[in-house]
Design brief:
The chain is mainly alpha-helical. Helix content is about 55%, strand content about 5%. Among the domains are: about 100-195; about 215-295, Fusion Protein Consisting Of Minor Coat Protein, Glycine Rich Linker, Tola, And A His Tag, Chain: A, Domain 2 (2-Layer Sandwich), CATH 3.30.1150.
């Protein structure tokens, strides 16, 4: 099937205008025959006219017949134009049949080129898909990063607000506690003033004499507080922190105030925290607690 198609494809083209040329030749020959017939007819001589006359004396003489005019000679026939010869276009030379090996090689090269173009198109499409996928992942990563940053900023702001609220609450609680302690101190002082004011002059004198702490009372107080001190640093020298302490009549600590810093803040804070942990101080030998008391704390004292 393929060989027949190739033969028809490379066969010489059919001669165009053959029918028209044959028809034109027939018409020209017919005209030539007609012209020849007309020419032969005009060349023949005219037919002579024969006239006979009889004379009669009794009869009137008739006029002689008019002479028959001679017919003009026929016009010379037109020269017969030579019939132009039909121009026959020579057929185009038949191209040589292609070499089947060359045709097969061309088809193979064409198929290889199409396959290569198809492969390049597929690779280009894959590159575009990969680029779109990378762009999508990058956008998603940026979106997730922004979400995390927004959440971190929100959490930080919320934490700051909570810290402010906590600080405000702590300050309010501290202020409230200070007021309560001051009220308790005032009540304790009033009660102590009433106790001192009652009785006779001798009793008042005895109360004044016994209002001071005993010799070892301060050591007992420091020994009670010092186990609660949590201090792991090794300070330079032996810093001393002086703290003023006030208690209720039963020994409950109601206030403490640093009146002289040791110069080492961490030691000062450790002493104050230890006093808060102690909560209750022991009474002196006379059952009283001096108000206020000034205690001195040092790491090696």
């Amino acid at each position: 099937m393929h060989t027949t198609t190739e033969r028809l494809e490379f066969a010489p083209p059919p001669t165009r205008g053959l029918v028209r040329a044959v028809g034109l030749a027939i018409v020209v020959h017919a005209l030539l025959v007609v012209m020849l017939a007309i020419g032969v007819h005009w060349k023949r001589d005219a037919t002579p006219v024969t006239v006979e006359a009889e004379l009669w004396s009794a009869l009137p003489v008739e006029a002689a017949p008019r002479p028959v005019p001679e017919l003009p000679p026929p016009p010379p026939p037109e020269p017969v134009k030579p019939v132009p010869k039909a121009v026959v276009t020579p057929p185009a030379p038949t191209p040589p049949l292609p070499d089947p090996a060359i045709a097969i090689a061309k088809d193979k090269a064409r198929l290889q080129k199409e396959k290569q173009l198809q492969q390049e198109r597929l690779e280009q499409e894959k590159l575009e898909r990969d680029k779109l996928e990378r762009d999508k992942h990058q956008k998603e990563a940026l979106r997730q990063k922004k979400l995390l940053e927004d959440k971190a900023a929100h959490d930080k702001k919320l934490q700051q607000e909570q810290q402010k609220q906590q600080d405000a609450k702590s300050a309010a609680d501290a202020k409230k506690l200070a007021v309560l302690r001051q009220q308790q101190i005032d009540r304790t002082l009033r009660m102590a003033g009433q106790d001192v004011g009652s009785g006779d002059d001798k009793a008042r004198g005895t109360g004044k004499q016994s209002s001071g702490p005993s010799a070892g009372y301060a050591g007992r107080i420091i020994a009670r507080v010092k186990p609660n001190i949590t201090y792991t640093d090794t300070p330079t020298g032996n810093p001393k922190a002086e703290v003023e302490v006030r208690t209720s009549p039963d020994g409950t600590i109601i206030s403490r105030k640093l009146i002289k810093s040791s110069g080492v803040k961490s030691w000062d804070d450790a002493v104050l925290n230890a006093i808060d942990k102690t909560e209750v101080l022991p009474r002196d030998v006379d059952g009283r607690i001096p108000q206020p008391m000034t205690l001195v704390f040092s790491p090696r004292g």
